[in-house]
Fold each of these.
Amino acid sequence: MDEPATRPRTPLPPRYGPRQRLPAEIVERARAYPTGPQIPVPVRDAATVVLLRDGADGVEACTLRRAATMAFAANMHVFPGGTVDPADNREDIPWIGPPVEEIAHALGAGPALTRGLVCAAVRETFEESGVLLAGASPASLADTSAPSWRDDRRALEEHRLGLAELLRARSLALRADMLRPWARWVTPVVEPRRYDTRFFVARMPPGQVAEADGTEAKQLEWMRPVTALEREEEGAVGLLPPTAFTLAELAEYDSVDAVMAAAAIRDLAPVMPKILITDGEAHLLLPHDEAYEQA
């Protein structure tokens, strides 16, 4: 698959840009990556959802600390999400919200992939946080308080149940209208696992409770974006660059309403970071950086 073209993006606010820390394992892989023309690992399509709520001191985002045993981003704080499964683009998945073609335009994807991305976003969010973006109508939301929902969540995680079957059994439909496309990030070429990930933002459904699944994610925290970035700077929290960048962007908004309104005019041009090693130091480069094209 060809690498996506990149366009300049809004830079990080000044207080966050210079201090972005790269995880040590990423730095080591960048240093070990062979020089000269290489064939990068193919990317896999993925979706991530930033669940948001209005807290006493402003917007709060839901983050999950991944288990230490995970092959990708172990111990890092991430947003719920994962790769698109073949069953995610099934046309029989009940759907409420904008037509697939309308969302496809925003995501820069075809109808089948768009359906897969939205369904993966909803499925992975439910698997990892227990939050289900679904309802019986455009004016209703799923009530996931009954104990039987835990069984359904586990069955979905273990692939014993599909999203289409879950929704139909519960007389629900996927609420695509609750998701807003926010960004698109592509893993750098130095990584052995690479993803083309669409980031969505969504309001936390009232009445539902978010909790880590205990397997892939060991801890769930609601944090103000600024707090998460400050904790990362102190070394208390590990953030991948796309997560840190997204949190820095969200720190500029005072309410979930403001975030959702901003999502409507976002530029979803794909962003693929580069890692430049100079004088033994690793530097993260984004498309708006002057040295990006020369790296």
Note: The mean pLDDT is 86.
Amino acid sequence: MGRTPVEQALIILATIFPQIPRDDLVRLTIAQRDAALFHLREQTFGSQLKGLADCPACHERLELAFDAENLRSLDILPKGEVALPDHESIELFNATAPLEVEGYEITFRLSTSADLMSTASTMDMEQARRQLLNACLISIKRQGQAVSVDDLPSNIADAVIERIGQATSWANLTIVTICPACGHEWEIIFDIVSYFWSEINAWAVRMMHEIHALASNYGWREADILAMSAWRRQRYLELIGT
């Protein structure tokens, strides 16, 4: 629907948590944001996640399925309830992290949706990485002396970017897949934002068809149909042969 992944994530969170100002939501770290989305997805559609993938070698279509509980037992997903900060405690969630590489003492914070939005219009990948680095770096020292980000060697900058990415590694899960038809093995990146957004869109379209069918046959109002349990709606749909 023309929305970027960052916009999609913020729309979902703003709908579920209208009491939290949008300016605070965009300042959640990507890890916090996606942890909340994963938890909301489980509450909405359950722990089972399913999808389709085409083998890049033989183009066989595969059905994929995994359970969030299994990922949580492997410490890939956060355990327990995922709480979003209130307006007063938002700053506490944007914790800083230290890094020492080849004599450089670096302090940085984790990236946020606001950071990604600021680089969205940048077409050059290297420039986008540099903008993200500038936004997240808090201090750089070497032998007790402050160092400018412009003087930071490229390998040190890459180390910081990598460390930032590691902090959100569970949010973009890598699924190793083997095609049963040809034996080809490849990796699929699972993105909770696009997956949850697609599920919500599919649910909305399905609900519109159900409402149209029931309203057309019984003359019920949309609000009354939505107030029914999913089980009751399905039974009525079966009675009219839908």
Note: The longest helix spans residues 192-218.
Amino acid sequence: MVESANKPPDSEGRNRVLRYLPPALVLTLLAVFFATGLHRYLTLETLVEYRPHVHGFVGSRPLTTVILFILVYALLVTLSIPAAGFMSIAAGLLFGWASGGALAVLGASLGAASIFLIARSSVGEPILRMAGPRVQKLAASFRADSFSYLLFLRLLPIMPFWVTNLAAAFFGMRFQIFMAATLTGAIPVCYAFAVAGSGLDAAIAAHEQQLADCVAAGRQDCQMHFEPDSLLTPRVIVALGLLGVLALGPIILRKWQARRRETQA
């Protein structure tokens, strides 16, 4: 009776609650984000409209703006909202390509680390256990060369940034390798967008003139048809593509050597 009365509370149920609390919080914040319409502000039109005010805020409160920008960027990535390209462009516009690129890399990396740890510690292992043998085989192959595979996916826009974060967590990738590949891949991509963003003022001026001409002509469909991805020039895309191929170099070489040994045997 005494042992029954002094029995500690069920730790298994408490651990289950703690395990699923972070993803539940992420889903709740994600629902609030879209329900309140905040996603509508992640557009070039909004950036153009509030650009003078934001520039003034950056000039008067530089440290506060830097901290706030990093936190917002990290939160968007944690919530798996596809806004990494937009935020990196905004960083270049607001802080210049050098500082803006560094802030974008930091925000993207912090957000990626957060969602990776949340996904892996809560639902990553159960999902992988429930997956079929084909998916488990794919996950094992991914883990064998996880750095090269993830770096390749970071450099080339084959999959969105948030998808690669979740895929790496579900496939059981080690956190240290995940962060190394994320940082290595985020640096050239974030700086490419930041460089484009630093020259955005001239592009915005041209599109503002087009918008003004459209309004002056009395048209009703006047909008700034300008997507962040369009700032990536063919030259930048080719450069990122070459870096992506180089990232797969160790895998290709290892498979070629293994096939050669099998042929010689």
Note: The CA atoms of residues 67 and 198 lie 19 Å apart.
Amino acid sequence: MKQHLSKQNRALLSELVRTDFKLRYQGSVLGYIWSLLRPLLLFTILYLVFVKFLRLGSGVPNFPIYLLLGIVLWMFFNDITNQGLKSIVGRVDLIRKVRIPRWLIVVSSSVSALINLTLNLLVVLIFLLLSGVDLLLTGFWLPVVVLEVFLLGIGLSLILATAYVKYRDISYIWEIILQAGFYITPILYPLSLIPEGFFQKTVMLNPLAQAIQDARYALVTHQTDTISSVYGNPMMRLVPILICLVLLGVGILYFKKQAKHFAEDI
């Protein structure tokens, strides 16, 4: 993992990303368009159920955009970890035939998810403009939030991909964790619906909850609770970031220790 991203590795990473895109949508009639349709279709369903019927988020300005942005960021994290989890096993032929830095395989799947996110954020921007929402100067902080989610996703992907080589049950366990995380994280509903105090503070220690709320504050409305407002201390924003960095460090060390055995263990 300490290797520099040489020209050869950059070329290899680029080829892995292109191959990943081709394989993912191979045989699909709509192809790459699905990368845009998935979050939009999920948004439409959740919007009708939770906003129109259950009336959630009625007190939040621009709640449809608020909801869409949360879904897009969640799907970004979901894509990174799900694709990263099976990335090593899925490239076993390449690992056995070519001398390749193993970490490039995991990172390539993360870059693919990042490209999808970029396209989806363009859709969010179009929705913002069509809705007549004023663009906030704080929107320039959005790339920092995306970077945080990206690093969190890579750290967990390294851990999951390494564990999946030996323990295939990991994929089922992670699927359950993601389903639970989707409802625990304030994506479908505003954070204000969670009881104040201990519960809100505990939820906001989740790096994804913090990142999604910060993204909404930066891009959609300043009437968004963030970890700083929940704790009454701006320095608390560093805690979820520290969790991301720790998970990334653990992932790198665990992956590096096991990488040399991948070809034999798969």
Note: The chain has a mean pLDDT of 86.
